[in-house]
Design goal:
By secondary structure, the chain is mostly helical. The strands form five sheets. A three-stranded parallel β-sheet has the order 1-2-3. It folds into four domains: 136 residues, Rossmann fold, CATH 3.40.50.620; 110 residues, Glutamyl-tRNA Synthetase, Domain 3 (Glutamyl-tRNA Synthetase, domain 3), CATH 3.90.800; 61 residues; 86 residues, Arc Repressor Mutant, subunit A (Orthogonal Bundle). The model has no long low-confidence stretch (mean pLDDT 92). It has 20 helices and twelve strands.
């Protein structure tokens, strides 16, 4: 099978690339890469009213950001409508499909009868064996598949196992609508066949479609691809995933400050397991991924776990990588003047880069990192948060009295030299280092917590540090 595997990701462009779609794309990508095959991308844009260019752009952008590249050109389903019609007509000619002239009113009556009798709605096959000469005048027919009425339709699913449908419970589905447009069921089968797709990996909400599509394959005499229907993602409470659980577009996760490599790592472990391993490099994912280790029960989305994985990747990232990642979401960060709008100003960038070793150790998202870096960009005089204000007002300012003179006198300004001066000040006034460091941090950053205090002072520099202390009313002596 190696080298001949072809998977596909086939989203409908009616909205953003949501998190479940991203995981489906990832599983397809990993399976193809592991077996030296291809992953193709098809945009299922046959719903013309709901498909939008903006959604197509968001899907392509989301996949690119996640690092999921596809092989060949993007296939647009709508552009292949003539081919779909041709296949429907060939089934008609072969006696595997037929014209159905049932009116909307007749179909509604069938629905009503099914509702009344508490049974599933099924088309009753009334035109299956009738002579088209009986057709009512002026009615444009649909083309329906002449589905088998006896026996079983079986899918040997790679995740769900052997799934069996009784053919008597499946009706003759529409292949071509009365206006000549193909249905989704037909289009998918024709496209997958023409694209030489060997493996269909998709959400288990498509499992019933698998039976219908298998019947179309069989009617056409085409081989049916291997299928794997993966469970959907649920919220942490076990309920169907909604926006409050994290059913957001991939673009929203980027905006929330997650790294693509972290989101990819988190998604691979949603429903797929490989022992106790939680962190995977891309190479490890590709080498380990298989369909047999996908569980049958829904995976649960857990923001806390995603944050922990993201924190791991942030700590392991280079400082430059994190600055660049912040730049990609800079327009959403509400940065003040002097920082930059679409890219950081060179002076600010250098300062942020210098502060990054301390910043990345304590943050789990880029947003949190940006918030922790606020001491670099907050306008002066700093507005102190409640804890910082309390530290300074409750004796903190007094304990700092005289520290400005010591700092001004330093021959060179570094983390080591400022620490020496502050330690000497604490000893001189007979208190522990923390009793001076705490109010000093509050005055310099406006917060009670920050990266290492002396690293902060080194990044801010002599002039800025001293001016901030004066802003907060620290006595000179």
């Amino acid at each position: 099978m190696s080298g001949s595997v072809v998977t596909r990701f086939a989203p409908s462009p009616t909205g953003f690339l949501h998190i479940g779609g991203a995981r489906t794309a990832l599983f397809n990508w990993l399976y193809a890469r592991r077996l030296g095959g291809k992953m193709l991308l098809r945009i299922e844009d046959t719903d013309r009213e709901r498909s939008t260019d903006a959604a197509i752009g968001a899907i392509l952008d989301g996949l690119s950001w996640l690092g999921l590249d596809w092989d060949g050109d993007v296939v647009y389903q709508f552009s292949r409508a003539a081919r779909h019609r041709e296949v429907a007509e060939s089934l008609l000619a072969a006696g595997r499909a037929y014209h159905c002239y049932a009116s909307q009113q007749e179909l509604e009556e069938m629905r009503e009868a099914a509702r009344r009798e508490g049974r599933p709605l099924r088309y009753d096959g009334r035109w299956r064996d009738r002579d088209p000469s009986e057709a009512p005048a002026g009615v444009k027919p649909v083309i329906r598949l002449k589905a088998p009425t006896e026996g079983e339709t079986v899918v040997e699913d790679q995740v769900q196992g052997r799934v069996v449908w009784q053919n008597k419970d499946l009706d003759d589905l529409v292949l071509l609508r009365s206006d000549g447009t193909p249905t989704y069921m037909l289009a998918v089968v024709v496209d997958d066949h023409d694209m030489n797709v060997t493996h269909i990996v998709r959400g288990d909400d498509h499992l019933t479609n698998a039976a219908r599509q298998t019947q179309i394959y069989q009617a056409l005499g085409w081989s049916v691809p291997v299928m794997a229907h993966i469970p959907l993602i649920h919220g942490s409470d076990g309920a169907k995933l909604s926006k409050r659980h994290g059913a957001l577009g991939v673009d929203a996760y980027r905006g929330l400050g997650y790294l693509p490599e972290a989101l990819r790592n988190y998604l691979v472990r949603l429903g797929w397991s490989h022992g106790d391993q939680e962190i995977f490099s891309t190479e490890e994912m590709i080498a380990a991924f298989d369909l047999s280790s996908i569980g049958r029960s829904p995976a649960r989305f857990d923001f806390a776990k995603l944050e922990n994985v993201n924190g791991h990747y942030m700590r392991g990232a280079t400082d430059e990588r994190l600055v660049e990642a912040l730049e990609t979401i800079l327009p959403e960060l509400d940065a003040p003047a002097g920082v930059g709008r679409t890219a950081f100003e060179p002076a600010f960038r250098a300062r942020l880069l210098a502060a990054m070793p301390g910043l990345k150790e304590r943050a789990k998202t880029l947003r949190e990192l940006w918030d922790n870096a606020s001491f670099l960009y907050a306008p002066r005089p700093l507005v102190l948060d409640e804890k910082a204000a309390g530290i300074l007002s409750e004796g903190g300012r007094e304990r700092l009295s005289g520290v400005i003179g010591r700092l001004e006198a330093l021959p060179e300004w570094s983390a080591a030299s400022t620490e020496g001066a502050v330690r000497a000040h604490a000893e001189a006034i007979g208190v522990k280092l923390g009793q001076v460091a705490q109010p000093l941090r509050a005055a310099l950053t406006g917060k009670s917590q920050s990266p290492g205090l002396f690293d902060v002072m080194a990044v801010l520099g002599r002039e800025e540090s001293l001016e901030r202390l004066k802003d907060q009313g620290v006595p000179r002596a």
